[in-house]
Amino acid sequence: MIHLNALANVAPTDIPDPDELGPLLSFLNQFGFLQPIVDFFHTTLNFKAEQPGLPEIFFATILSFGLMSLIAAVYKATFRGPKLSQDYVHTLIILGTVVTMIVMVVRGGSSQKAQATAFGMFAAFSIIRFRVTLSEARDISFIFLAMAAGLAVGARQYGLAMATTLLISAIIYGFSRANWFAPNRASHNLRIRVTNDINFDFAFKETFTKFLEMYDLISVESIQAGMMTELRYTISLKPEYSPGELVSAIQQINGNNRVYLTSTSPNRTLSDD
């Protein structure tokens, strides 16, 4: 008969070593009902292997595609420009997934993993060349976010990739919906055409005082062979007036000649306060 104390000293063989699990699986392993998930990733996908096998490669590619799709969805949901580029959204998804593949290829299974990953990151960033000018500065930040998530997945830092992508996406979506740091006043560019018999230095002064909080004359240009003058202003509407009311008032003064009003912030409509 085997002594009970000897049985007590035998460690179970089905409990994986926490050092082999990594931070994500170690956290999940603390919850008993998540043990099947831990076993699936640790045993089936064989995350503890020196280099990723075919199941883990498929998992990393799908995970990267899912994270890139989340980033693209957040970009689309928070986009406020005049025209959403489907090509750019597809580029975000493709770019991050390809970066994952590049880093996995460069990283390999050698002992110099950290150094190889660093060279892989350098190579991934250096091959990016955009032949089309980006419409907004925020587009660049989404490119770096997609590349960072792809690099993390390629470096087998799956927990880091998922946690940071989810957190950053939530933050971006939150402050975009809350409209943080929006300008207090909607600024516009105003172009007015007048005939030469109108003294524009005084003709619009009363109207501007009524409708505008601020206006600044930028340029005066002679057009149509010197028969008319085009004025260009930077203005800021008062909250209680709409752009249509301002245009109608100006047209009563300039004889229904052309009045052109555009927003200096494409992500804000002309009816915004």
Main sheet attributes: strand count, strand direction, barrel closure:
4 strands, antiparallel
| Straight-line distance between termini | 86 Å
Report mean pLDDT, rounded to a whole number.
77
Radius of gyration: 30 Å
Polypeptide structure, described:
By secondary structure, the protein is α+β, with helices and mostly antiparallel strands. It folds into two domains: 49-177, no CATH class; 187-263, ACT domain (Alpha-Beta Plaits, 2-Layer Sandwich), CATH 3.30.70. It contains eleven helices and four strands, in the order ααααααααβααββαβ. α7 (138-154) runs antiparallel to α8 (158-177). The longest helix is centred in the first third of the chain and has 25 residues, at 54-78. The chain is elongated and about 85 Å long.
Notable characteristics:
alpha+beta; disordered C terminus; 4-stranded antiparallel beta sheet; 273 residues; single chain; 2 domains; Alpha-Beta Plaits; disordered N terminus; 11 helices
List the helices and strands and how they pair.
Elements: H1 4-8, H2 18-28, H3 35-44, H4 54-78, H5 86-107, H6 113-126, H7 138-154, H8 158-177, E1 187-195, H9 200-203, H10 205-211, E2 212-223, E3 228-237, H11 243-253, E4 259-263
Antiparallel strand pairs: 1-3, 1-4, 2-3
Give the structure's gist in a few sentences:
The chain is of the alpha+beta class and 273 residues long.
